[in-house]
Design a protein that fits this description.
about 375 residues, 8-stranded mixed β-sheet, about 25% strand
Length: about 375
């Protein structure tokens, strides 16, 4: 049983309840409050902290690698590929305008995509591909995005690398610092964030939603926004979104690490960066796509073994290190790569299926969601 004080404060009827306190949920609350400071908003999250992908990713401020964008163009068409790139680009700009970069460990340090010698079939027309995408992207980013950077191959000390492509618009940040800064900001706006409480079901009752939780506490709200990304099917089974586990490992500090920045391989399925003098490496999900469609946050032997092989043979073949941490996070993917961002029925909204790009997409989608819910 709850007290009258709790009933009339923490559990009072709300204008908006948001499921999920990850990047999308927090940015949505941020912009909702900017549009109408008087809105009563509560965010409910099943974890003690946001534990889907927002705090369990690799911390990339990700614009997109050359082969990823070319693959997206083939599967989505040119217009949708460019739309997605523009959303990522503008989202990263919003992060930089909202927070001081040093407070969130953000640095637009640039990134690289590399090709091993067994990928020569992909690099026969590399210069033409670079010129083609640079022309397509110019209306969005103004300057040239990609250029060949083979001169850095020996300097970086990679094994079996044939080509490097530089991307000036890549960067990284500290996901934990970004999420805590967002949390502090929305709480200072008056948003209530309640953790360790999961929405189990909801139903529309005239002009409001009755929301049942695993704590036996019921909430009421005029509008409901679902932002639980890879877990969205639990509440909205009709959506084309499934979980996709991304696995990561982190090395011990490496003496005289010869490079800095973000790196991609095989359409972005492999990705790594420096975290100080440590290497943070993730990916290889393409080796077991079906197995990785799981809600589990545990790591698996097949993926971790491949990441260790890649680390030893390609990234840092002549250095000593230990593996300090391993973890997994749950992304949301589907048959299409574009996010699902819509009003499902009167008062019921969703913003999910970030396809591993939530850091960059969330600020812009949060703003779009706030406009959609208050227009």
């Amino acid at each position: 049983m709850i007290s009258v004080w709790e009933k009339e404060t923490f559990f009072a009827p709300q204008d908006i309840i948001i499921a999920g306190s990850g990047f999308v949920g927090l940015w949505s609350a941020f912009y909702l409050k900017k549009r109408n400071p008087k809105l009563k908003i509560t965010i409910l999250d099943k974890g003690l902290i946001p534990t889907g992908a927002s705090t369990r990713n690799a911390g990339f401020a990700c614009f997109g690698s050359l082969t990823e964008l070319l693959a997206d163009e083939q599967s989505m068409g040119t217009d949708q590929m460019l739309q997605l790139v523009e959303m990522r680009f503008k989202g990263l700009e919003k992060i930089r305008r909202t927070f001081r970069q040093k407070d969130i460990g953000m640095e637009m340090c640039g990134g690289y995509e590399f090709f091993t010698r067994d990928q020569d079939y992909l690099t026969n027309d590399l210069e033409q591909q670079i010129d083609y995408l640079n022309v397509l992207l110019k209306p969005i980013v103004e300057n040239k995005t990609y250029k060949i950077a083979d001169s850095h191959i020996n300097e970086f000390g990679f094994g079996n690398i044939h080509h490097l492509i530089r991307n000036n618009l890549e960067g990284y940040l500290h996901s934990g610092k970004l999420i805590t800064n967002l949390l502090q900001h929305v709480q200072s706006q008056g948003v209530q964030v309640l953790n360790n409480i999961e929405i189990k079901s909801f139903e529309k009752n005239k002009d409001h939603f009755d929301i049942e939780t695993d704590r036996g506490i019921r909430f009421s709200a005029s509008k409901l926004l679902i932002c639980i990304n890879g877990f969205a099917k639990k509440l909205l089974p009709e959506l084309d979104v499934v979980p996709a586990r991304g696995q990561v490992l982190l090395t011990s500090p490496i003496d005289k690490l010869p490079w800095k920045g973000t790196f991609h391989y095989k359409e972005g399925f492999y990705y790594f960066r420096n975290l100080g003098q440590r290497i943070l490496l993730g990916g290889a999900r393409n080796l077991a796509l079906q197995d990785e469609k799981t809600f589990s946050l545990e790591t698996s032997d097949i993926i971790q073994t491949e990441l260790e092989r890649f680390l030893k043979e390609v990234i840092i073949p002549k250095k000593k290190y230990n593996i300090e941490l391993r973890w997994g996070g749950t992304m949301g993917v589907g048959h299409e790569k574009m996010p699902i961002h819509k009003e499902i029925s009167p008062g019921l909204f969703c913003c999910v299926r970030m396809s591993g790009m939530g850091v960059a997409l969330a600020p812009l989608l949060g703003e779009k969601t706030a406009k959609m819910m208050t227009s």
